[in-house]
Structures are given as structure tokens and as C-alpha cells.
């Protein structure tokens, strides 16, 4: 998840007029469905909150299932 977060932030830095709401929306849609569900249940107000929740959800889901769930596998191909 940390690699995904880093890549996502690097892309966002390159977009001059990206609002916090757009950043949050794009981030949520780039997440694996299982992580996204956990994050959306927390109703984060900012990207930073969502990133923190996503990292925690990914860690728990990885520990429980044994598989990383971070970003969608196709995200880096976009």
C-alpha cells in the first residue's frame, strides 16, 4: 500500500488544479473494492484520512487473507 500511496501522491502533485474533493474521489476509486469499502465506511473528509484508513485496512486484510489488496492491479497501467 505504501508504494501505491507514493505513486498516487506523485501523480497528484503533477495536477495543478486538483481539489481535495477530487483527490479523495480519485483515490477511493483507485482502491481495491475490499479496501475501498472499509475506507468509505469511515467517511474520510480528506485524502490524508482516507490514506491512513486505506493503509490500515490493507494491513488487516493482508494479514487475514495473506494477500496484498492495496491499489487495483491495473491502476499503474492507467
Written description of the protein model:
This protein is mainly α. It is 65% helix and 0% strand. The protein has four helices and no strands. The protein is globular, with a radius of gyration of 12 Å. The two termini are 17 Å apart.
Short key terms for the protein model shown above:
78 residues; mainly alpha; 65% helix
Summarize the structure.
It contains four helices and no strands.
Q: What is the approximate shape? A: globular
- Poorly predicted runs: 73-78
Largest sheet: none
> Could you give the order of the helices and strands?
HHHH
| Structural category | mainly alpha
Portion of residues in helices? 55-70%
Give me the count of strands: 0
How far the N terminus sits from the C terminus, by CA atoms, comes to 17 Å
Strand percentage lies at under 5%
- Tell me, rounded to a whole number, the average pLDDT: 87
Helix run count: 4
CA gyration radius, whole angstroms: 12 Å
Any chance you could write out the topology, listing elements then pairs?
Elements: H1 2-13, H2 20-30, H3 33-41, H4 47-65
Helix pairs in contact: 3-4
Amino acid at each position: 500500500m505504501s508504494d501505491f500511496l507514493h505513486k498516487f501522491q506523485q501523480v497528484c502533485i503533477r495536477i495543478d488544479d486538483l481539489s481535495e474533493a477530487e483527490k479523495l474521489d480519485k483515490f477511493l476509486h483507485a482502491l481495491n473494492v475490499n479496501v475501498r469499502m472499509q475506507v468509505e465506511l469511515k467517511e474520510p473528509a480528506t485524502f490524508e484520512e482516507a490514506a491512513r484508513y486505506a493503509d490500515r485496512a490493507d494491513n488487516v486484510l493482508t494479514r487475514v487473507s495473506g494477500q496484498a489488496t492495496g491499489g487495483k492491479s491495473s491502476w499503474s497501467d492507467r
